[in-house]
């Protein structure tokens, strides 16, 4: 049973009993998705930011920066991407740790490697892909996602765009506090204040983003996606990426949809590009990032990652017939 099962029960009760929406209708699907994901993501944001803040209270920013700011800057991108693989967050949940890296002074390109790898690749996705499509597809997906994360971070790092990151701090920054010397009570107070300072700034964007995703989830059926992104059309891969961006899910949640799309005639590369776009370039992620970075940097980030995903989709279609 999922740890989110109680939230699903609450979403079901609100949708079908309180709002009186008939089950198995398009409206019910959209409303249920919106309630469930909004509550789930806000809880995850609070829990993860709080937990990360407590952990950071034992790790001086200099230590975090030293670990990820390797003498060879490319090693830092590799380490951050590998860290992303073992932290199975969705895009919205990975952002708090991304912010912590930025605040600690970790190079921006390195932090983006983490932000891309964390939602796109994780052990759950690996197991599900292996179960549905076999070992070869699972490994190629993980390797390609890792390469996208590393190279995208390196390219963004070369642009020197640190000036495009907004000041998102709430009060004193972590590097202005002598965190390792704090008492437990002080650590909890610090984590609480930091958590609600961030959540207060981004919650409305989470709700708006999930709302858009819920509408698409309920009103844009898989058949419609398959109709326009199936076959060997040259535009199938970029179209699948564009369709995937407004949607919202983690890798585990979208893999079953990938299975449905391939059964309906969508090629493997196109389906996986669609999956990568949902997990690595989701609209809710952009809306939250808009609070901590300027639009120009979001466009750069989306353009580089999107290009990598499209290339990977074409490569998959070429290699897997």
Could you explain how this protein is built, in words?
The protein contains 15 helices and no strands. With 321 residues, the protein is mostly helical. It has one domain (5-319). Helix 11 runs parallel beside helix 13 (268-280) and helix 12 packs antiparallel against helix 13. The longest helix has 36 residues, at 184-219. 43% of the residues are buried.
Question: What is the topology?
Answer:
Elements: H1 5-18, H2 26-56, H3 61-68, H4 73-85, H5 91-104, H6 108-120, H7 123-133, H8 135-158, H9 184-219, H10 222-229, H11 236-244, H12 251-263, H13 268-280, H14 283-289, H15 295-319
Helix pairs in contact: 1-2, 2-5, 2-9, 4-6, 4-8, 5-6, 6-8, 6-13, 7-8, 7-12, 8-15, 9-14, 10-12, 11-13, 12-13, 13-15
Brief rundown of the structure:
By secondary structure, the chain is mostly helical. The protein is 74% helix and 0% strand.
């Amino acid at each position: 049973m999922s740890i989110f099962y109680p939230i699903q029960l609450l979403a079901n009760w609100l949708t079908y009993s309180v709002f009186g929406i008939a089950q198995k209708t398009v409206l019910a699907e959209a409303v249920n998705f919106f309630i469930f994901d909004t509550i789930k993501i806000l809880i995850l944001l609070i829990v993860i930011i709080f937990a990360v803040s407590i952990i950071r209270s034992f790790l001086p920013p200099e230590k975090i920066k030293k670990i990820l700011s390797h003498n060879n800057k490319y090693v830092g991108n590799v380490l951050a991407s590998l860290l992303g693989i073992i932290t199975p967050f969705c895009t919205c949940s990975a952002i708090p740790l991304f912010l912590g890296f930025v605040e600690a002074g970790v190079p921006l390109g390195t932090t983006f490697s983490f932000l891309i790898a964390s939602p796109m690749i994780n052990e759950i996705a690996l197991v599900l892909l292996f179960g549905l499509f076999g070992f070869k597809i699972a490994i190629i997906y993980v390797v390609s996602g890792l390469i996208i994360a590393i190279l995208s971070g390196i390219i963004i790092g070369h642009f020197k765009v640190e000036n495009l990151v907004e000041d998102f701090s709430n009060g004193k920054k972590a590097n202005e506090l002598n965190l390792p010397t704090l008492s437990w009570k002080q650590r909890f107070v610090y984590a609480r204040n930091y958590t609600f300072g961030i959540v207060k700034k981004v919650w409305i964007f989470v709700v708006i983003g999930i709302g858009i995703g819920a509408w698409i989830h309920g009103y844009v059926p898989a058949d419609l996606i398959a109709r326009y992104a199936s076959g060997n059309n040259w535009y199938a891969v970029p179209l699948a990426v564009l369709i995937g961006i407004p949607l919202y899910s983690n890798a585990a949640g979208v893999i079953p949809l990938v299975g449905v799309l391939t059964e309906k005639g969508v090629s493997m590369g196109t389906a996986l590009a669609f999956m990568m776009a949902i997990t690595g370039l989701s609209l809710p992620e952009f809306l939250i990032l808009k609070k901590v970075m300027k639009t120009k940097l979001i466009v750069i980030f989306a353009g580089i990652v999107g290009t990598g995903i499209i290339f990977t989709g074409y490569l998959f279609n070429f290699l897997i017939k």
